[in-house]
Specification:
The structure is a single chain. By secondary structure, the chain is of the alpha/beta class. About 40% of the residues lie in helices and about 15% in strands. The strands form four sheets. A six-stranded parallel sheet has the order 1-12-11-10-9-8, sandwiched between helices. The protein has a two-stranded parallel ribbon with strand order 2-5. Helix 7 packs parallel to helix 9. The longest helix has 26 residues. The chain is globular. The two termini are about 20 Å apart.
């Protein structure tokens, strides 16, 4: 790639090391604008006519993202990846869920009276829109940045988007065999859709995921089960673990999004998935963010289980204590950067732990 990220080779090696439990990555959740001149003189597009054009017009979105990417900072290990998201959990849109664009995100709403059979049409308009968007972004990028892998989601979180939380939880108790079959169906569909997304997005067999700042050779994705905060360890092992394991076996590199204090009870089941590479921690509403000392023991437990870690929204004053107490090995620290000068300060701290480049 002819990427706008000047230190890409160093960052690339850090990602490879991190997937294997080594080294330190300094990145951030999305991007901030760089100081000084842009990488290219790209005109800012006219404001979109409405949210539908902003989110769902592939050419407009590609032009807007190209303008953004030409101005973003890629210091430290911030990835040059364009956000091709069509909502968190957009696989559900291809299976019957409703999509609505808003100021900050795309909302996915479950339809009324969704049946037991989960059906997939390979000619579905939303699948085609995903592919058109990725191809348009890749065409504009010309190798300067990645067209990101969107957050399709998988497993029970997709079924929730189709049938609603209450119905899914009731089926766990009343119709577990139906729910297990739906999980199997969603897995098979996820693999088919991801194959097409990856084919459109990859650059010479490498890919980057839109959010969570992850990259790798081959098929890379974040996995999750946000609904798992509502059910027991036994149900997680029955309805999630086997399907997560198959996802990890299908993909080349995987990061699990562990969301909320109540979901920590499922950590042992996650650590038991040998093929899972890393775990990202989101504390949840009312809790301190990922750099707080409250989470040091959790990080140590994850490391002891053989997984790499992503700690999110870490502030500058939290960075050194975090690395002192947990260690830099296998740590992707997603910082709460506000400026490039803050990035430079974080790099100075990271040098104490062997970070170079």
């Amino acid at each position: 790639m002819n990427t706008w990220k000047t230190n890409w080779e160093e960052s690339r090696q850090r990602y490879l090391d991190w997937w294997n439990g080594k080294g330190l990555i300094l990145s951030m959740w999305e991007h901030l604008f760089k100081e000084g001149a842009p990488y290219a003189q790209v005109p800012e597009p006219e404001p979109a006519k409405d949210w539908n054009q902003f989110w769902f017009d592939p050419q407009y979105r590609a032009d807007y993202l190209h303008w953004q990417m030409s101005r973003n900072s890629y210091k430290a290990d911030i990835l040059p990846v364009a956000n091709t998201q069509l909502g968190p959990g957009s696989l559900a849109s291809m299976l019957g869920a409703e999509m609505e664009g808003g100021p900050d995100t795309i909302w996915i709403k479950h339809p009324a009276d969704y049946g037991d059979q989960i059906l997939f049409d390979e000619n579905h308009e939303w699948l085609h829109l995903h592919l058109e968007l990725i191809r348009a972004v890749k065409e504009r990028a010309q190798g300067h940045y990645y067209a990101g892998i969107p957050d399709l989601m998988e497993g029970l979180d997709v079924i929730v988007s189709l049938r609603g939380t209450e119905n899914v939880l009731m089926d766990m108790v009343i119709r577990p065999e139906v729910l297990e079959e739906q999980c199997r169906q969603v897995n098979e569909i996820y693999f088919k859709v991801y194959d097409q997304i990856y084919e459109a997005a990859n650059e010479a067999g490498e890919s980057a995921f839109c959010y969570f700042s992850i990259w790798g050779p081959g098929k890379v994705s974040k996995l999750q089960s946000d609904i798992s905060i509502m059910f027991s360890e036994e149900d997680f092992i029955k309805f999630e673990q086997p399907f997560l394991r198959k996802q990890c076996q299908y993909l080349d590199y995987t990061l699990y999004h562990l969301d909320g204090v109540g979901a920590v009870r499922h950590l042992d089941a996650l650590l038991d998935i040998r093929e899972l590479n890393a775990i990202q921690w989101t504390p949840g509403v009312g809790e301190p963010q990922g750099g707080d000392p409250k989470w040091y023991d959790l990080y140590r437990r994850i490391k002891a289980g053989g997984k790499s870690i992503q700690a999110n929204w870490v502030t500058l004053d939290e960075l050194e204590p975090l690395l002192d107490n947990v260690g830099p090995e296998g740590m992707l620290v997603s910082m709460d950067f506000k400026s490039e000068s803050e990035i430079d300060r974080a790099l100075k701290i990271a040098e104490k732990y062997g970070y170079t480049g």
